[in-house]
């Protein structure tokens, strides 16, 4: 039953030269595509669910889909994670729903307030055996309910938004978070850079030094591959000037600087949208949803496998070692699963 918290995964990722991909799920086809890819790559996996996804798909449905997948692949290490939780109340609800990990995102509050909300959520989550991700620093782009800055303005003032390594240490100690999402130049969505795509690796290095042992997380880490933008635009889409984080830079953050978790949503949206658009344009008479959702699901499999390979997250083939480590820790599970 290896539904697990992120701890056994990050224990090995921290100095193992790989990161665990955290992919956003919103419906059955996306979830199935991600899990099929992880099974093919024998990779650990974080399925993350935003507040918007909970509302769109209805939590009971999403959880039932995930439970079905866990049953089908009992040898795959899977964590179910709340993405960008904004209140302790939502964190509590997710704990009751059987999430194994939660994010409390207080990054838009001032420092002390961020510590306070994170600490409260962490106390609740830890009491239930659930791991907690927090965020310090500010990302650009669009996040649900929080309108970020556009790429131009973000790049111009970047120093102001990046995570401060000294604050990070204080934040970690006082908030009791188990992992930390850092601002190092990434942003949410498909329009991440106006100018050169460049991450602040020196920041990651400094944070690793001030916070040894703390697993770092990169949000906004889609690469927005040009070939998918071209397909979307070729089949009637309109996404000019889309730009993501080059996969070589993601790989560098993971293998050279030790980032443990990499969040990807936009690339899944792109892959599925490009394929569905292609079906609609090349087969205009098609109206069986299985004939376009099916290829959309296949596109998700391809995109997720691409991410798990050695030149990006390097998480392929790591499932077995994580399961063994989890068993060595005593197969810990959140209290939800013990009743
Ligand atoms: O960080 C945001 C994720 O891409 C989730 O997006 O809130 O629209 O589901 P969403
Ligand atoms: P992208 O928009 O780059 O896919 O980032 C997703 C994310 O950070 C979800 O929390
Ligand atoms: Zn995010």
Would you write up a description of this structure?
The chain is of the alpha/beta class and 339 residues long. It has a single domain (7-338), classed as Aldolase class I (TIM Barrel, Alpha-Beta Barrel). 48% of the residues lie in helices and 14% in strands. α2 (28-41) runs parallel beside α4, α3 (51-57) packs across α4 and α5 runs parallel beside α6 (111-127). The longest helix has 20 residues, at 289-308. The radius of gyration is 19 Å and the shape is globular. Glyceraldehyde-3-phosphate (G3H) binds next to α3 and β3. 1,3-dihydroxyacetonephosphate binds at residues 24, 83-84, 188-189, 219-222, 263-267.
List keywords for this structure.
single chain, 339 residues, alpha/beta, TIM Barrel, 8-stranded parallel β-barrel, 3-stranded mixed sheet, 15 helices, binds glyceraldehyde-3-phosphate, binds zinc ion
Question: What is the CATH H-level superfamily?
Answer: Aldolase class I
Summarize the amount of helix as a percent range.
40-55%
According to CATH, what is the topology?
TIM Barrel
Instruction: Name the ligand types.
Output: glyceraldehyde-3-phosphate, 1,3-dihydroxyacetonephosphate, zinc ion
Backbone CA Rg? 19 Å
Q: How much of the sequence is in beta strands? A: 5-15%
Number of strands: 11
Oligomer: single chain
Number of helices: 15
Average pLDDT reading: 95
Give the overall shape, derived from the CA principal axes.
globular
For the biggest β-sheet, the strand order reads 1-2-3-4-5-8-10-11
Give the N-to-C terminal Cα separation.
15 Å
- Count of separate structural domains: 1
Indicate the CATH class.
Alpha Beta
CATH architecture: Alpha-Beta Barrel
Low-confidence stretches: none
Largest sheet: 8 strands, parallel, barrel
Q: Which structural class best describes the helix and strand composition?
A: alpha/beta
């Amino acid at each position: 039953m290896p539904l697990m918290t992120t701890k056994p995964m990050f224990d090995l990722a921290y100095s193992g030269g790989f990161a665990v991909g955290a992919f956003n799920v919103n419906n059955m086809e996306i979830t199935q595509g991600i899990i099929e890819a992880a099974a093919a790559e024998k990779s650990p996996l974080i399925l993350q669910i935003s507040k918007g996804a909970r509302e769109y798909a209805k939590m009971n449905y999403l959880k039932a889909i995930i439970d079905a997948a866990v049953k089908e692949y009992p040898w795959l290490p899977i964590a179910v994670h709340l993405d960008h939780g904004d209140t302790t109340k939502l964190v509590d609800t997710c704990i009751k729903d059987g999430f194994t990990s939660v994010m409390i995102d207080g990054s838009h509050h001032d420092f002390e307030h961020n510590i306070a909300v994170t600490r409260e959520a962490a106390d609740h989550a830890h009491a239930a055996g659930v791991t907690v991700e927090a965020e310090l620093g500010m990302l650009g782009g669009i996040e649900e309910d929080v309108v970020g800055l556009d790429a131009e303005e973000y790049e111009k003032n970047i120093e102001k938004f990046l995570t401060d390594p000294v604050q990070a240490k204080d934040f970690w100690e006082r908030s009791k978070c188990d992992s930390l999402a850092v601002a190092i130049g990434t942003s949410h969505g498909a329009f991440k850079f106006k100018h050169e795509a460049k991450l602040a690796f020196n920041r990651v290095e400094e944070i690793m030094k001030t916070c040894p042992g703390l697993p770092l997380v990169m949000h906004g880490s889609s690469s927005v591959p040009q070939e998918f933008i071209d397909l979307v635009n070729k089949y009637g889409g309109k996404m000019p000037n889309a730009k993501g984080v080059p996969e070589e830079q993601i790989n560098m953050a993971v293998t050279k600087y030790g980032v443990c978790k990499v969040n990807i949503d936009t690339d899944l949206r792109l892959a599925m949208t490009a394929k569905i658009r292609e079906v609609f344009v090349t087969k205009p008479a098609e109206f069986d949803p299985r004939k376009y959702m099916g290829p959309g699901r296949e596109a998700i499999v391809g995109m997720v496998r691409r991410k798990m390979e050695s030149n990006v997250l390097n998480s392929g083939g790591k499932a077995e070692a994580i399961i063994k480590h989890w068993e060595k820790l005593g197969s810990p599970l959140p209290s939800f699963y013990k009743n």
